[in-house]
Amino acid sequence: MSIPLASLMFVLLLAVSVAHLIWSIGQTWPIRTEKLLAQTVVGTRDIQHMPRKRISLAIALGKLLAGVLALALADHDSGGVALTLLGIPLAALFLGRGIIGYTSWWAQKTPEPNFRLNDRRVYSPLCLLLGAGFLLLVILRLL
Q: How far is it between the farthest Cα atoms of the chain?
């Protein structure tokens, strides 16, 4: 069960990583303007521009690394306890982001309508899924 789960998580994280990589080189795919992209993926009040390109690059690398770590967690014979323990903060990070997406505090911080819609339908559920996936991978390693 670990390998199919980790593979799915890797593909999801790779897709997010590629999007951030594209944004890190100044492209606005899949949205036509930078302002609309920023409103859709960042969502803070009155946002006009995407964050600095190096931030998108760092996020792209972080998501790719998280995907690789998911695959590593599926290999029960490698990495030892340190790798297993690394899965716990990753689970907490993704679960925390997923949960916070449904709070009124987060809605106030990210009021742009395009972001709000996507956050409820895609971003927060995806984070909850990934967080649960990391938690399950850790549990399966411990069994």
A: 49
Cβ atoms of 126 and 12 closer than 8 Å: yes
- For residue 113, the Cα-to-chain-centroid distance in whole angstroms is 20
The pLDDT of residue 1: 87
**Cis before 125 (ω within 30):** no
- Amino acid at the residue 45: R
Any residues with CB less than 8 A from the CB of 69 and at least 6 apart, and which? 83, 86, 87, 90
Distance CA 143, CA 138 (A): 9
Q: In the chain, which stretches have pLDDT less than 50?
A: none
Model's pTM, two decimal places?
0.95
- H or E stretch covering 55: helix 53-74
End-to-end Cα, the chain, rounded Å: 12
Tracing tokens 């521009």 back to the chain, one arrives at 49
Task: Provide the token pair at 25.
Answer: 């080189």
What is residue 78's predicted lDDT score, i.e. its pLDDT? Answer: 84
